[in-house]
Amino acid sequence: MFEIRRYTAQQADEWNQFVAQSKNGTFLFDRRYMDYHQDRFHDYSLMFYRDGQLLAVLPAHVDGDTLYTHRGLTYGGLLMSARLTVAETMMLFRELNDMLRGESLKHVVYKAIPWIYHRLSAEEDLYTLYHECKARIVARDYSTNIFLQANLRWERVRRRGVVRAERAGIHVERSDDYADFWRVLADNLGTKYGVKPVHSLQEIELLHSRFPDNIVLYQAVKDGSVLGGVVLYVTPQVVHAQYSSATPEGKSLGAIDAIYERIMHHDYKDYPYFDFGRSTENPDGSGLNETLVFQKEGFGARGLCYDIYEYDL
């Protein structure tokens, strides 16, 4: 039997320590990251104890009669101790589902953590979702990632971009000043898609101040002007491009190619994986942006799915 507790702010340190030691957690599940937008979600995060030991946590929120894990995060799901077995995971979900029924909830929408983010194999939840919960996939998003140690050769168009940037006098630098790049990013997103960045400038500056080693900005600069940038989310297994954007001049001069050359071939070349993130236009993962995928594949990236499951209680 598990003791299931609702998370409270008084347990933040215990929660964060567990996330850091879990086999599939990243800094996105640290409460200092999760709670920056806590006003937008009714938190229903849970902590699972057995024999007094914390063996799993579930970042979650409730909307109506549905538990989500978690719409405010890129990926989510059960964060597990290396000690948690598959039999215990199945028991955990049975007891979780009984508790949720007792709270009059009707559905669970479950985001899975892509396997490249696992420090140890951690798909006990997926096995349990299928066999215990009878879950179905309701969305499948498409991302592209690179096995950095495979050293796939870049396509010619990407290599030529690096050369153009060098000849134009562009230099790539790591920066803690997000304002100039955020203007470039906001202009691009507004012009092309009529949307704003997921994070405001103030939010990304706050999160960077809390996680300076995990949220990193690289900029391509020419004659003192920022022509492009990439914001990285750095986790133990994966370097993820959270934002990438360039001015029209930066695009023509290969600014983004130069940044990725620095990241992949120098500063983070020893990491296992680089994840470019989603290349689709709709929440369910449909609407593949073929132009965007073509650019990413030019760096050697190949397919990775981000899945969302749903089951009825």
Describe this structure in words.
This protein has ten helices and 15 strands. By secondary structure, the protein is an alpha+beta fold. The strands form two sheets. It has an eleven-stranded mixed beta sheet with strand order 2-5-6-8-15-9-14-13-12-11-10. A four-stranded antiparallel beta sheet has the order 1-3-4-7, covered by helices on one side. Helix 3 crosses helix 4 and helix 5 crosses helix 9 (255-267). The longest helix has 17 residues, at 86-102. It is elongated and about 65 Å long. The relative contact order is 0.16. The model has no long low-confidence stretch (mean pLDDT 95).
Describe the secondary-structure layout.
Elements: E1 3-6, H1 12-21, H2 31-34, E2 42-43, E3 46-50, E4 53-58, E5 61-63, E6 66-69, E7 79-80, H3 86-102, E8 107-111, H4 124-131, E9 136-147, H5 156-167, E10 171-175, H6 179-193, H7 201-210, E11 215-222, E12 225-234, E13 238-246, H8 248-252, H9 255-267, E14 273-278, H10 290-297, E15 302-312
Parallel strand pairs: 6-8, 13-14
Antiparallel strand pairs: 1-3, 2-5, 3-4, 4-7, 5-6, 8-15, 9-14, 9-15, 10-11, 11-12, 12-13
